[in-house]
Amino acid sequence: MSTEKPQVDYHETIEVVSDTSVEQQVRDIVAKLQQEGQVSPPKKVANPITIGFGSFALCSFVLGLFNAGIITDLPQVAVGVALGNGAIGQLVAGIALLCQGDTFSSTTFMMYSGFFFAYTLMFCSGSGFLEATTANGIHELNQCMGLIQLAYAIVTACYFFGSLRMPIVIRIVLALVFCCYFFGCLGAFTGVVVLTKIGGWFSFALAIGSWYIMCAMLYDEEHTFIKLPLF
Asked: Residue 183 contacts by C-beta under 8 Å, 6 or more apart in sequence?
């Protein structure tokens, strides 16, 4: 009788499951649950950036008409557009983007919304700002406008350097915003009307660029015949 213990070989089988197969299984389960009504399909989230750029474009266009000296006998139209479109429109876009977690865009739109709110308060006849700053001439008014535009030119430069990896059209728009504030600041501090008018023409270019971004994000194959590239 042999005393040797029988030799037993153990063979383990490991099933390797790829990530793609797991993802496919998850998608199949979710699709089945959706068909049975147990899981609701994901809701489509709107892009509020179009609201922000559309509001910025319209307000920049009207202010460009005023600053360039093309329309100077209707200053109240700039105040109305600044409040009703520039301030409120960008504030709505900024809050929506903040809820979506887009820190850069929300900060940008809400900061420029603050500028148009300040512009409205300063030039609204009921605020008393114009009467106080023009009591001894227009010098104090120009200094106030130069100071606020200088501050926004600095913050716009910060936004521009923070957008160097974004599409080139975004960088162009931010560069145009900087030029608007910079030349407006120089014109207000120096009293040279030509510099203010140059800032107004940059405002026209800013409006065109902002409208282009708005259209590039709005146009799609489902609703339009063309699709604009976002360079």
From this structure: 195, 196, 198, 199, 202
Contact between 59 and 86 (Cβ < 8 Å): yes
Does 178 fall in a domain?
Answer: yes
Cβ atoms of residues 188 and 200 within 8 Å: no
Tell me how far the alpha carbon of residue 159 is from its chain's centroid.
11
Those residues with Cβ within 8 angstroms of residue 70's Cβ, 6 or more apart along the chain or in another chain: 200
pTM of the model: 0.77
Cβ 112 vs Cβ 81: under 8 Å = no
Classify residue 159: in a domain, yes or no: yes
Q: Is residue 36 part of a domain?
A: no
pLDDT in tens, 43-84: 667 788 999 999 999 999 988 888 888 876 666 777 888 888
In the chain, the amino acid numbered 41 is: P
Cα angle 149, 133, 59; round to 5: 40
Find the DSSP H helices in the chain. 19-36, 49-67, 75-81, 88-100, 103-123, 129-133, 139-161, 168-190, 193-218
Report DSSP state, residue 84.
I
| Domain range for 205 | 48-218
Within a domain: 212: yes
Rounded CA gap, 83 and 115, in Å?
Answer: 10
Q: Indicate the DSSP class of residue 68.
A: T
Q: Are 188 and 145 in contact (CB under 8 A)?
A: yes
Q: How many domains does the chain have?
A: 1
